[in-house]
Design goal:
Layout lengths: L1 E6 L3 H12 L4 E5 L14 E2 L8 H24 L6 E2 L2 E5 L5 H13 L5 E4 H7 L4 H5 L5 E5 L3 E2 L2 H14 L3 E4 L3 E7 L2 E7 L2 E10 L5 H6 L8 E11 L8 E4 L2 E5 L4 E5 L13 H14 L8 E11 L6 E4 L6 E5 L9 H13 L23 H13 L1
Helix pairs in contact: 1-6, 1-9, 2-6, 2-9
Length: 390
């Protein structure tokens, strides 16, 4: 019998499977679609600095950030695939002089937490990235700050490397498989019923992103994972005119070293609709050309959308959900799934293996009391989006 069945082959599921297999577990991974359907494949791959703090989410991100550097080297050695993890720095800019007090506060917060952050005026922005000069002259950028340690990763390459590593470690991956139900007996999960029949295992981990809530509800569990759509456009730069990530509010530009640029993103409460909309893509392209007018004739190579799994309180659900402690959940990372994936994988593998965890799992307990929906972290982002677009 398989030691563990992981339900979901996105970034979280594959990372958990890889970690378990590295400790000698036999692992089967089930997924409803291809890698391109996962929210992590659709992500931009922006990793802000991750200083340590008492906040559980920050602690998980800090640990994951350190692990990403280790995993990137391991994945390259194992698979020959470079996942593109590199420090490029990030500009966090504003178009409003009224936001300067907020910018100053954010800089102090980063510095107090141990991250390097430098306050910028408009001329400093142009000194760092001359291609933003037109936006500064037009009053579209009046100030902000630089996070020199902000990193980026190439999500499709990272996922490809993860899947290759999993297979090299003996993980069996079944794609195009629908999980219809989880069979529970005496508070223990015995098997899952799939479109291809029953699969038994010693332990099960539900890591299906935005689809986790439905499967959990079928066995009487309340694990909210609200789908929140994000859309991105990929354009080709006329030349390597931008080096650092540019963030303005919830919009961003992510330059790639191969001459491409990601333009994102949206935060939309539209259920399980993972299609793009012409209006949203047009707005993103307008933002790109406002920031860098020379991009006006840059061709759109591709556009796509992904569904982020939002939790009610902004904290992912990680840990056991059955008395028998053989059914686990790892979901609800919202916008941080890719960044927090490595720490999540190690923590979940420790819990599944029954060894002392390296990080206190109690704040992530999937059965913890939930706040009212109106107080959710997701709603705060949606309200911010509405304000930015007003």
């Amino acid at each position: 019998m398989t030691d563990c069945c992981v339900i979901g082959a996105g970034i979280i599921g594959l990372s958990i499977a890889r970690e378990l297999a590295g400790h000698g577990f036999s692992v089967v991974v089930l997924d409803r679609g291809s890698l391109k359907l996962s929210s992590s494949w659709a992500a931009a791959g922006i990793f802000p600095p991750a200083p340590m703090s008492d906040d559980p989410g920050d602690a998980l991100t800090h640990w994951s950030d350190e692990l990403h550097r280790i995993w990137a080297a391991q994945l390259l050695e194992e698979t020959g695939i470079d996942n593109g993890l590199r420090t490029c720095g990030g500009l966090h800019l504003t178009a409003s002089a009224a936001h300067r007090d907020q910018i100053n506060s954010e800089v102090r917060s980063w510095q107090q937490r141990g991250a390097r952050a430098t306050l910028l005026d408009s001329s400093s922005i142009v000194d760092i990235e001359p291609c933003l000069g037109a936006a500064v002259s037009a009053g579209l950028l009046v100030g902000g700050y630089l996070l020199p340690d902000e990193m980026q990763i190439r999500p499709p390459r990272h996922l490809e490397a993860l899947e290759s590593s999993c297979k090299r470690r003996g993980v069996v991956i079944h794609r195009g498989v629908t999980v219809e139900s989880i069979q529970i007996r005496n508070n223990r999960a015995e098997s899952v019923l799939t479109s291809e029949g029953h699969i038994s295992a010693g332990a099960f981990c539900l890591s299906s992103g935005a689809w986790s809530q439905k499967l959990a509800a079928a066995i009487g569990l309340d694990i909210p994972t609200r789908p929140i759509r994000g859309q991105i456009a990929l354009i080709r730069m006329p030349e390597q005119i931008l080096k650092k990530i540019v963030n303005r509010g919830l919009e961003y530009l992510v330059p790639r070293t191969d001459g491409y640029m990601l333009v994102g993103s949206t935060i939309e409460d539209v259920g399980f609709d993972a299609t793009t909309s012409p209006q949203a893509i047009a707005r993103l392209l307008a933002f790109a050309t406002q920031m860098i007018p020379s991009l006006v004739n840059s061709p759109v190579e591709q556009s796509w959308a992904g569904l982020r799994p939002g939790s009610i309180d902004g904290v992912p659900s990680l840990g056991p959900v059955s008395v028998g402690h053989n059914l686990f959940v790892a979901s609800g990372h919202f916008r941080a799934g890719l960044h927090q994936s490595t720490g999540t994988a190690v923590l979940m593998a420790e819990l599944i293996r029954g060894v002392p965890p390296s990080l206190d799992p109690r704040p992530f307990n999937p059965l913890r009391p939930k706040p009212l929906q109106g107080h959710s972290a997701v709603d705060a982002y949606l309200a911010r989006t509405a304000t930015d677009l007003a």
